Known about the structure:
The complex is a heterodimer of chains A (248) and B (447). With 248 residues, chain A is mainly α. Helix content of chain A is 62%, strand content 3%. In chain A, strands 1-2 form a two-stranded antiparallel sheet. By secondary structure, chain B is α/β, with parallel strands linked by helices. Chain B has two domains: 57-240 and 371-446, Rossmann fold; 245-366, no CATH class. Chain B contains 17 helices and twelve strands. In chain B, the strands form two sheets. In chain B, strands 1-4-12-11-10-9-7-8-6-5 form a ten-stranded mixed β-sheet, sandwiched between helices. A two-stranded antiparallel sheet of chain B has the order 2-3. In chain B, α5 links the parallel β7 (116-122) and β8 (147-151). At the A-B interface, α2, α3 and α11 of A face α10, α11 and α12 of B.
Amino acid sequence: MNGNILKSLIxxxxxxxxxxxxxxxxxxxxxxxxLPQSTTLFxxxxxxxxxxxxxRVMFEFNDFVMVWxxxxxxxxxxxxxPKTGREHIDMVVVNLEFFIRGISCLLEGExxxxxxxxxxxxxxxxxxxxxxxxxAKDWFGLQAYDEDFGQAFASWGIGPGNYFVIPILGxxxxxxxxxxxxxxxxxxxxxxxxxGLGAFVFINRMSLRVKSYMSLRDPAFDKYTSLxxxxxxxxxxxxxxxxxxxxx
Amino acid sequence: xxxNSSQSSPHAPFTIRIAALALAAALTTTALPTxxxxxxxxxxxxxxxxxxxxxxxxxxxxxxxxxxxxDHDLSFWAREYPINxxxxxxxxxxxxxxxxxxxxxxxxxxxxTAKAPLVIILPGMGxxxxxxxxxxxxxxxxxxxxSVLLVxxxxxxxxxxxxxxxxxxxYPPLDAKDIRYALRKIITKIKNxxxxxxxxxxxxxxxxxxxxxxxxAKLESESNKKIGFKSYxxxxxxIDIINALTTLDDFFAKWRKWPKxxxxxxxxxxxxxxxxxxxxxxxxxxxxxxxxxxAEVLIATSYRYAxxxxxxxxxxxxxxxGLIKTPYGFKKNDLYRELDAFSFQDYAxxxxxxSIEAKLGKSLSMKELAxxxxxxxxxxxxxxxxxxxxxNSMNDFLVPRKKLKWFAKTFGDRALFFEYGxxxxxxxxxQAKKAIVEYLTTIEKVK
Lengths: 248, 447
């Protein structure tokens, strides 16, 4: 497929999904002291899941891929490239993603974040040997602003929408799934015409995540619900920027 | 509470002054507070926690998050080794068939390369053998030369489906029998696989697992067919587990007093702090920066989550005695809505009581159920059991301060108290690790 056609398709998809997307601002909600007795804490801290049937089927598929494709791949990968090597390869990609984080910061009105991300990119590109080392953090104390398009949309007051499991990519919400489309469209690897590069980058990243996935998956009886709630909690922590200063 | 103190006169002979100084230094690590129990004062053996910035029992308890497996002392090559680089992954996860027609029970084991004592660790309520804190404790023992075995809690779904003989778990005298039966099978399997490699077996329990440890000690003392545990260590056992769990209901209910818009945010804030503790640790001079009420709700939520999973497993096995109306199916949102309404109090009164009455063939009041399931019911045995030791903190929210005297009275010198830590929140400290390991190594040497 011609690269330009692919790009046009991605941009068309972005526009189409954006048009379908429902804005759910909760800015006007009045806080109430008492909630109905039937309301449970879990129902408040869990995402709305009206397409549970689809999501469970897709979760089973993704889980199968994770356990039977990515886990063996990770085992094989470990013999070829040790974990530290794979981490540094991923750091190069993370450095290239500064563009996405920077734009997301701008969309959120976090100009300082955009500036820090730009500094980080150039420092790591040069002193950090194309991003293999995060010297911006280690030497200059510049922490990454881990922002993305989903977080930018949330900062505009767009609600998460329904919980939505994306094939292969995993848990998301409707809002964040749209953010993912932007992520892929703006990702530098999408625009580098090297066959298989995107697949290598993706598999490398998944190989670094598979162990933590298994450690969260194995203890759960209902793995779907457990991972859904955990993912959603972590996502909300990120959106509310609560993952920054940990202690007094 | 009165603390012992030591003073030396400036005119005392040099040797006396040296002795007094040594005593004063010793007292910075071990102080002996006394509490009034009935007629005569009882002495608690307390370990001072210098450098521990205690806040309260709740926020101290959150420091359990700091119990994490660490691999930083591994060499670069060991860390990069493709298989089993991390301590967490270096164990074998095996299975044993405990009950016929049930799925096998999984367990995690780290074997020393040479002959070594085996330490079995039982987790707290609903705990899984892959739990981070449990694995960190396993590392503490492994690093001190023990082989270590982990199994899931009897109130975890995995143990329930594999090894529980009651319709519902949660009654320590019966759960202890199931755990002991399962451990016997697992130990036999391990001894067959590693002949002559285990020189002795020790049982250690955390929280509810500590209660089980003490009940198993009692069962062993009465049995003709012993597993042969050399020692027992109960870390933070609640005296009365059923009432302790209702304390968690009180914590959990606090979210209802929050404004609607704050509910989610408060939980997120507390969870964010907890996650940060697990990933980044906490400098010794820092406090856990979280609202106390939010921390209470977060702690209770994690236990309620375990209860929810257990109820789901009970429903799936058809052992809910008709108390859960929504059918078990592929989609579970409606079922969860019903399960979420059950508190620990409901679980004890509706599920546990009914199940125990059916198993024992007699009716029991809630008071009897709680009393028979509490440590009070085995206190005469515990008072005499020389190879049983208890570790607790002075501010465990599951053991009210006035009940600490029960430990002092029952265990005497065999009860050790940490000055702070809430519920399990001191276990990451060097002092606690040292005390936990020292007990077993002392027993090994004495015997």
